[in-house]
Structure formats: C-alpha cells, structure tokens
Amino acid sequence: MDIIRLILLALKAIGRNKFRMFLTMLGIIIGVGSVITMLAIGQGSKQSIQKEIGKMGSNMLMINRGSFRQGAARGGAGSAQSLTLDDVEAIRNQCKLVKEVSPTVSSGGQVIAGANNWNTQIHGVDIGYFEIRELTIQSGEKFTFRDIVSAAKVCILGKTVVENLFPDGEDPVGKNIRFKNIPFKVIGVLASKGQTSFGQDQDDIVIAPYTTVQKRIQGGTRINFIYASTYNEKDADAAKAEIEEVLRAQHRLGEFDENDFSIGSQQELLSAISSTSRLLTILLASIAGISLLVGGIGIMNIMYVSVTERTREIGLRMAVGARGIDIMMQFLIEAIIISVTGGLVGLALGLVSSFAVGQILKWPTLVTFNSIILSSMVCALTGIFFGWYPAIKASKLDPIEALRYE
Amino acid sequence: MVQAIIKIDHVCREFTVGSETVRALKGVDITINPGEFVTIMGTSGSGKSTLLNILGCLDRPTSGEYYLDGTAVSSMNRNQLAVMRNRKIGFVFQSYNLLPRTTALENVELPLFYNPEISNDERRRRAEVALDMVGLKERRFHKPNQLSGGQQQRVAIARALVNNPVVLLADEATGNLDTRTSYEIMALFQDLNKKGRTIVFVTHEADIAMFSSRSIRLRDGKIISDRIIEKPVSATEALAGLPKDNDI
C-alpha cells in the first residue's frame, strides 16, 4: 500500500472527528508556539545585549590602575598611582596589536552655561578616544593634535549635557561654558549613544583634551584609565597579553610581583553576559518544551482512546484485507498528521506571538531559523514517538475479536 | 471437472480456554462449487462461526486442509491471509460494520484501498457499479445514519462485491432486520446468485435456509446433514405473500 493512499485514509479518519482532532492538536499548537516564542525572547535579549556591548566598542581594552599596597594593607582597585603618560606612550609604540590608545583623566563638578548649570563628569582624553569608544560628532568638530599640545580650553558635549545647559534648543557650538571657573569653548556635540544595558547614560559627558584637564583643572600628570583599541575583535586577548608585558616592563615588576594594573576587555563582559542569557534561553525553552511534551502525551492519549474506540473499524479493515502494517501505518500517519499540522499552526502562532511580544511589550525578540527547525523536528518526532505505541497496539488486534468488540 | 471454490478436508479447530481444550470443529469436510448458494445452519455453539472464520481466512484450522479457489490457505501467515481476504472474499456481517460519518460510496471503496493494483479512478468506478448492483446508486453520498437498516446492509453487500470476490460470506446477514427487510435482502442474494455469484450464508433461522440451493447443518462441531434444496423458495414471491400489517 503506497503512502499517498495511507495519507488519504488517515485524512479521512481525521475528517470524521474534526473537533477532537483539533483539541488534540491544541496541545501541540500551544507547545510549539511557546517554544518558538520563548526561544525568540531568549535570543532577542541575547542579541540586544550583544548590540549594547558592541556600541561601547567591542574591540576596546580598558586599563585600570592596580590596588595601592603598603605592607599588608591593600587599597581598592584604582587606588595606586601606577599609570602614567609614559605607559601610554609605551603601549602606543610597542604594542603591535593596539590600534589606538588614549589616557583618560576625569573630574566631576558643575558645568555652567549662562544661567544654567549641571553636574557632570569631564573626561580629558586623547584624539584616539573617539575611535576607541566609537563616538561620533553630530555637529561641530573634534579637537586636534594642536589642541592637545597647547592644552586648549575647548570641549565637546554629550547630548544630555546639551539638553540641560541649553534647554531652549540653541546651538551650543561656539558658546562658552565654565567648569571650575575655567572657561571652555564648545567646539562640538556628540551623537547620542543612549543608555548602556546597565542604565548608565552615555550622553552625560563633557570631553576635553587630557592635557587641558591635567594642567588647568587637576594640576599634575596623573591619569585615571588608559583606553586602547585593537585592529580586530579577535585580537583582544592577544593585545591584552601584549599590553600586560609592556606595562610590567614599564613598571619594572619582578617575575613574582603582582600586576599593579588591571586590563579588562569587552569580550570578557560579552561572554559573561552571553552565558547568562544562554542560561535564560535554555530555561525558557525547557519550560516550553515541557508543554510540548504534555501536548505529545495528549496525542498518545487520544490515539490510544481512538484505537480502543475504533476496534470494530480496525476489525473490519482487517476483514476486507488490511494487513497489520497497513493498520499500523494508518494510525502512525494520523498521529504524524496531527502533530505536524499542529506544529505548523503552532509555528504560525509562535511567530505572531513573538512579534506581539516585540511590539506590545517592547521586549526584543528574534526568531531564528534554528528554533524553527528545532521545533519542527521535535514535532514530527513527537508524532512518531507518541503515535507508535497505539499504532502497534492496533496492528496486533485479532480481526475476529475486533469485529466482535462492543 | 469444475474447480471447487471452497474445499475443506478434515478441518479441526481447537481452542485452549484456561487449562481446557475446546474442540469447536471436529473434522469437517465441505466442497462448494461455483454458483452454489449454501446456508450453514446450527445453533449457538455448533461451530458455525468458527467454520465461517476459517472459510473467511480470518482464522486457521488446527488441522486439516483448506483450498480457496484452488489455493492452499491452511499454512498461510497473517499477511498472506489478509491478501486472500482482500482479493477472494466478500464479507457481509450481521451488524453491517459500516464506517460512521462516511458516505456509502467511500464505505464501498474501502476494500479497494488495500489493493495497490487499483487506481483511484478505478476504485471510484467499481464502487459506483457495486452500489448500482444493490440499487443504491442514488444514495451514494448518504452517510450510514441517513440510511435504514436494510439500506445499510445493502451498502455492506456492495462493499463485499466491490473486489469481485470468488465467494460472498454472510454471517447472520439478516439477523438485525425485520422479516420484510430480510426477505428483501434475501431476494438480493438470490438475484446475485442467479448472476453466478457463489454465496455461503451462515444463519440460525430455519426459514432463511429455504431460499438457498443447499443447506448444511452443524451440531457440536460436526456436519449432521448436507442436502440439496431442489426448489428453493423465491424471496420475491415470499415478499409478495407477506401480510400487509407486517409492514412497519
């Protein structure tokens, strides 16, 4: 008996019991729909976190000062005054994998423009900083090498600062602001970067040449951080090792001395967060998977009842010439049709609800090809797995007994 | 010599119920030739159902030989028996056994679904011819619950005829019907028999036997009589002779 006849027979049998078959399918529909939706939510949040981190500059390395140590007493990270401009130069000259490097010198306080003022951070940076942090200028221009050398009193404002100092919407470029009584000329405005995934406003900054901040605001030559970027995201780990080597030599650390600095990369953060969101995805998918399993048991239950209920029909089919395998295939194909149809409807439901979650709850969702393949496979397997036992049972019936069954 | 449609030699059938062995058939010999209309009579427990199951290839004898249309059936396996039933036998049951919520035509088509040599068009055509033979061509799209008992049995007969079997096996085929309707069904069987169809009809009703051409009586697993009926009663005439008030 060929497969097309079997499918035809199974479809006729399903057609005779439409409502019950729909209820059976419902379990699979909900199961597959929730698997797709949950995977979409998991994948979506993973992707959006990765994008957020990418925005901060995914090939960025951040070098922090180490802890201050005196005898056995240790200060916190960044308490030692270990980073110098010489270190910056050493990294710039000796590290081949590093593309750009910039010191940062930060200072907090009130910025004043006319009658408005705002408490923010001023970051003194080198020219490379813009590329490392992937900052772009929306209007005006960046400061130049000459500004760095001359410690020019120029600055670039983040969007939040602009909104607070120039609430009437006037163009800040060309205006003067004051920070700790020192006038700065605004030469540019940064394009908005929004918040980080940790809720930190990346637009609430003022950027100036590091020389200006060092000489005119802080006095001295201390720097807070060194930022560096690599040519390639993949080089981050190698570049980190390279910088470590250069800085250890620079700081004259012996073989057994601890680093008096620390290097963090976005890659580390990325992988930590990725593994968290992967866990979330697995958790969501396994909850949804359980509902798919329950749906599968529903199929088995109905097929089992159906075999018992249709015992006479099976007896008749055998009497008119159906072999055991014909009966088995019929029930198996019925189960597969139910689960595959349920799976397709569930897939549609999953796509719609993923879209709805994205639109209504503003939750990032992403339906991947893999999740579609995964749930379709699970679906077909569910049909075969849970249809198998009832189908075998049907095929082993004795036609005489089956015909006599009341 | 004409080849016998059915030839059974010393057929025995034993069942083991618990620790006891029940001998349902104790050495039965029957030869049925083409064109015969045989009734097998017997009370409950006489072994007539067991015999019918064996004749219908639903069961195998414990010992003895069975040749159906010249083929030895006794040693066949389940699948081979299924093919024999599909090609050689037409069953008519007491309780019709039609598939519910399925049209008469689709019910009649059913046996041909299990014959891969028959195309979809051929299946449909043959089912229509079979329904026409039992006079239900007009009702081919009716479902069993839209048909009377007599009509349902006619659909079942059409289903038994659709594979053009060598023998039609009826198991108490009039058992669920009133007298008038059962005479109508018997008239149909007689008509089919006249056209050359071989029929084996199992019943416990004595008046059904008089419509056949040969009557075999079973008791306790053995044949106690096997006689040719010279002048079978015409069911059509018997129908005309029924008093009007018998009509329900």
Give an overview of the whole structure.
The complex is a heterodimer of chains A (406) and B (248). Chain A is of the alpha+beta class and 406 residues long. In chain A, 55% of the residues lie in helices and 18% in strands. Chain A has 13 helices and twelve strands. The model of chain A has no long low-confidence stretch (mean pLDDT 84). Chain B starts with 5 loop residues before the first strand and ends in a 7-residue tail after the last helix. Chain B is globular, with a radius of gyration of 18 Å. Chain B is built from eight helices and ten strands. Chain B has a single domain, classed as Rossmann fold. In chain B, 33% of the residues lie in helices and 26% in strands. With 248 residues, chain B is an alpha/beta fold. Classes of the chains: A alpha+beta (406), B alpha/beta (248). Chains A and B meet through helix 1, helix 10, helix 11 and helix 13 of A and helix 2 and helix 3 of B.
Rg of Cα set of chain B: 18 Å
Low-confidence stretches of chain A: none
> How many β-strands of chain A, per DSSP?
12
Label the structural class of chain A.
Answer: alpha+beta
| Count of distinct structural domains of chain B | 1
Radius of gyration of chain A: 34 Å
Strand content of chain A is: 15-25%
Q: How many β-strand stretches of chain B?
A: 10
Q: What is the N-to-C order of secondary-structure elements of chain A (H for helix, E for strand)?
A: HHEEEHEEHEHEHEEEHEHEHHHHH
Oligomer: heterodimer
Helix content of chain B: 25-40%
Count of spatially separate domains of chain A: 2
Largest interface: A-B, 25 and 27 residues
Mean pLDDT of chain A: 84
Form type of chain A? elongated
Described by the principal axes of the CA atoms, the overall outline of chain B is globular
Mean pLDDT of chain B: 91
